[in-house]
Hints:
The chain is α/β, with parallel strands linked by helices. It is built from 14 helices and 8 strands. Strands 3-2-1-4-5-6-7-8 form an 8-stranded mixed β-sheet, with helices on both faces. The longest helix has 29 residues, at 166-194.
Amino acid sequence: MDLGMIGLGRMGGNMVRRLLRGGHRCVVFDLLADRREELQAEGALGASSLDDLVRSLPPPRAVWTMLPAGAPTEEALRELEGRLAPGDTIIDGGNSHFRDDVRRARSLKARGIRYVDAGTSGGVWGLERGYCLMLGGDREAVDRLAPILETLAPKKGCLHCGPAGAGHFVKMVHNGIEYGLMQAYAEGFELLREAEEIGLSTDGSTKFDLAAIAEVWRHGSVITSWLLDLTAAALSEDPELAGYQGVVEDSGEGRWALMTAVQEAVPAEALAAALFARFRSRREHLFAERLLSAMRHQFGGHVEART
């Protein structure tokens, strides 16, 4: 099947590579020429502009965007809308807000263009493992994309979740769960690392090997997961995690999930704590923490520990 791909970063580029391996014809565009050229060398057809990309695809066209949520995606979709024809399909595989999908689908439908929102999970491992795809939009449009979707996703890794916005809504909740799981693992390993009373040792010495704990949990434990696999790999490569500063960003979906939970009066304590922990990781010391220290000194004469 023919597919246009706009955005050739870590996700988009590897998705094209997986599609090329599956025998599909991919026309690719990115503002960075070296990304286009790299994929051209691997068998894709590079487009020098959106006009070139659209001209290179036979109708009815299918164009997939893998761009940052917000302005970059909005701009690309506006430009595509003016270039595509009735019967064509746009797929947004970025991390857009589900309410934006509803608006876009309505606008594009008036022009006869179909819109599919594709929540996409898999990260840099998706090239080999496949991508979990959560799809929203017109069922007929999704069915027409079946050859592409079957190549991108592993077996049972693709689901039509409902109308426009449903795919990104499910991905939003997925990422909220991801935040909580990651925070739970991080806190657990911090407790293991800091607990001195029990005298933990994995080899009979004073050395404590967190990677060994992660590895044993990977086999038969009820908390085994792909995230634990990645944790074990990270600890094995860098036991002290010296290569990381601990500044943890968020892509926006955790915030949206928490705001939706508030709107729906759904308790989401783990998600809230995990999201706030990410905010905290970006600062050295908050004013609130300095005030806490000041209050402890005022009422009890407690002096801050010097580092």
